[in-house]
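Summarise this fold before class:
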Amino acid sequence: MKIILLLAFTLFFYGNSISQSKITITVNGKHDEILGYTMDPDGTGNKESISLFGGMQNLTSVLQMSYFGASPISTMIISITGATTADNALITLTNVTVYALKQYASNYTNGTFAISSSGNINTEIKCKFQKMMIEQGGSNKVPITDAGSLVMDNKAAQKWEIQTDSSVTGIGGKVTMQLPKGESYSTHIKFYPAGDTKKIVASWFGNNHANLLPGLYDVVVDDEYTIKNVPVEAGKQTRLKMGIFKVSSYGSIQIESSDHQKFSAGGPFSKLLPEGTYYINGRKETPVVIKDKTVTKL
């Protein structure tokens, strides 16, 4: 099976070869070089739609969050550097929503992608946008810079970190957790596809890990707290940022997170919680801050 990459270079390049051009996409301050793009990818005449194709390893989690959560990206920048300054262009898209996302293991030769289990992972996305602004040419190469605030509408603190892991093989990724030194817990962690509350795809007790296909997942901690839209990327490790909350007093308390999730616990107890800010019994003036790999006592 082959996928022919359609490039809308005629908008700016008027016949320049692919090898003479460099295209970079920027979202939320992260950059990825892509292989090409095309306007109106569905052929419906919609001039406010675009598709992009390339590795996009740095941007996979952001794009997946927009796709699975229908969350708009405030600003997306496409930077094109051509053979001459006249070929340079900077395209700024605002209020961008990813409505289609596919990943292929493929090999690329002269504009043709051959699907192969041993090829590189390439991502194809289709987006709708509200506005496009084009800056063309200039005396210098088009810089890869942010235009204004590149912040997604979802401003919640990220409760995980992603890094390349050479031990992860195949097309999937790994989710892990690291408890504070000297601590061990039988906390139950369950994984659901993002937005699904019925289909469990993995679970573990204690300090463990799960191998999952690329995508977004909702992670449920002890049936009390949900970490939403946790990204899993091919060949990478997603580590959940967790800390321990210890309460020595007796009696029941209510815990509320900064994203308004509430649950109760009876003291004394030790509880594993995602990194973040919590309020005890509704007291917003004295928040409890849980830090990654750290024990917090009350």
The helical segments are 60-69. The radius of gyration is 22 Å. The longest strand covers residues 89-109. The chain has two domains: 2-136, 156-298.
